[in-house]
Design a protein that fits this description.
With 176 residues, this protein is α/β, with parallel strands linked by helices. The chain is built from four helices and seven strands. The longest helix is centred in the N-terminal third of the chain and has 26 residues. It is elongated and about 70 Å long.
Length: 176
């Protein structure tokens, strides 16, 4: 009798693991509306996926408090999951710990560069706030002969830079 019980427990644990992996794979198809080359998984805003019986809960953290894309991301997650049969999916937003560019996947950083946005370099750097510039590599020609044009680029999480070699402007995904 005991072996049967252990087999049942193992079966249901494995089934739950397979379902969680499937949901993570589905979330890789949900794109950031501001940077559509990145999935919400690449971006690191999906913190965890939980299952309580048939109820799926996706826990997300915004890239910054008040990010206007988060409502769209939440809706897109619910729609994606509903289309796959998870009708009562719940999306929970948590603010702590705060999101950081350290949560961007390596694949996401490569996608940013290929898209023409310089990925974040290192961790949070407060030097830029007091006027000390860092030479960010140009995603077009790979030169580090660049300068910041504006602390704010096409969105609040990016800064506008210019390459002094190829003369192309580009966004830099700021560390935070």
């Amino acid at each position: 009798m005991r072996c049967r019980l252990e087999a049942c427990v193992t079966y249901f644990k494995n089934k739950k693991i397979r379902l969680l992996k499937k949901i993570w794979k589905l979330l890789e198809e949900v794109k950031d509306p501001e940077v559509p080359v990145l999935s919400v998984v690449d971006l690191g805003v999906v913190r965890e996926v939980l299952m309580n019986g048939e109820q799926v809960e996706v826990v997300i953290t915004p890239t910054y408090t008040g990010c206007p894309a988060m409502n769209v991301i939440e809706m897109d997650i619910k729609v994606m999951l509903a289309m796959q049969g998870y009708k009562n999916a719940k999306v929970t937003t948590v603010l702590s710990p705060a999101w950081t560019t350290d949560w961007l996947s390596e694949a996401g950083k490569k996608k940013l560069k290929a898209y023409g946005i310089a990925p974040p370099v290192g961790s949070v750097d407060k030097a830029e706030l007091i006027g000390e510039e860092r030479n960010i590599e140009c995603p077009q020609c790979n030169s580090t002969n660049t300068e910041m044009v504006s602390q704010f680029g096409s969105t609040a999480c990016k800064a506008l830079h210019k390459c002094l070699d190829c003369l192309e402007p580009f966004d830099y995904f700021k560390c935070h």
